[in-house]
Amino acid sequence: MDGLLWQRLSTLGAFMVPGLALWLPSGYSWGAVLLLLCSLLGVTTWWRRPLGAGAGRAVALAGAFALMGLVWVLDMDGPGGLRNLDRAAKYWMALPCLFYLLACPPHPRSLWWGVALGAIGSGLLALFQIVVQDMERAAGFTNAIQYGNLSLTLGVICALVWCALGATLRFWQAVGLAVAMGLGLLGSLLSLSRGGWLALLLTLPLWAWLLWRWAYRPMLVRAAVLCVLGLLATLALQGPQLHQRWVQANTEVQDYLQHGKADSSVGQRLDHWRLAWAMGLDRPWTGWGRAGYAAEKQRRVAAGQAHPFVLAFDHGHNEVLDLWAKRGLLGVLALLLLYVVPVLIFWPTRRRLRRGARLLDTTALALRLTGLALPMLYAGFGLTQAFLMHNSGNMFYLFMLMLVLAALQAREAEMWGAV
């Protein structure tokens, strides 16, 4: 097959990964499987192609993936043996996909409209589950926390792209992205996942600062108006439930701090964090391992050092602390690189967004903000949930990062002649 067909397939994959992510069963995997097949069948297309000016970025991202994959390989020590390699396999299979995408990059528009479709689908599915199926929390085809956090990610990316592209958008494009933004955030709210709200709250000042600095400022005013309207609509729809969740969280914090009550959503997280920190301090270099973590947790519960409620979970409800207890400093370092490397790659600067007397490239800005949103939001999600313990968290993160980097590198080559 010729290079044009391979590029069209990568563009289709870029649309499918976010576009099908939440409103179909394992939707995030469909595009990933297509890209993996393309990378294997088209190996002669990308194998010997030079990486050009973006070689450093590609190698750094591939290195972060590979190191995290090595950490997950150590999961073989847990029950199930080789079956525990499924998570490591995702990181290793991402490597050929990365280099295939760099050789045959997707068009940015496929990403934007894939994200928009994914956000619209997640919001509509959440509405269906709450209004028609009368579910207490929207959960899609996964659990409520994963669903809500990924829906929020799609909504935030729509908002960033909408603001970054600004006046270059046609009316119907602006409306489509605005609707997608609202429905993506609505999907998160209807999931009642408080960890996602915390991540958004922590990152909101960063988005406001970056957009005020680089984006078309009238779009920020429109975004603020839409957010206010969306908040009012949400309060009208789910106000009592949202208020109840926040009151419940505050009560559970006080119950744990004052009475050691850990048999609640917040209480068991606080007990998990305390336990994981103490376990990591005892074995800071290697951690306890997956099997050792479970056994030592049981021993400490029996000794009265933790509440029995923590035995119902196989992770520490915090990404960093979970790896600290299980894999020590190696695990923590690998996770930090998985977050920090994309931040360094995508961080927008004047030199990266402009060349010489050229005007700001809004497409490059939108791509960089999209790539930046992934590690920043995931780090926020990881404060209250071991997000990478789940297939959806890993697949969406890995493939979205690769797709954004490939599209960005192609855009820079097109605009500035980078090779």
Automatic annotation (TrEMBL):
A Pfam match: Wzy_C
Compartment(s) of residence: Membrane
Membrane spanning residue stretches: 20-43, 55-74, 111-132, 144-164, 196-212, 219-237, 328-347, 359-381, 387-408
Principal location class: membrane
A single GO molecular function term of this UniProt record: ligase activity
Membrane topology, from the record: Multi-pass membrane protein
The keyword Ligase is assigned to this record: yes
Keyword presence, Transcription regulation: no
Protein name as it appears in the record: O-antigen ligase family protein
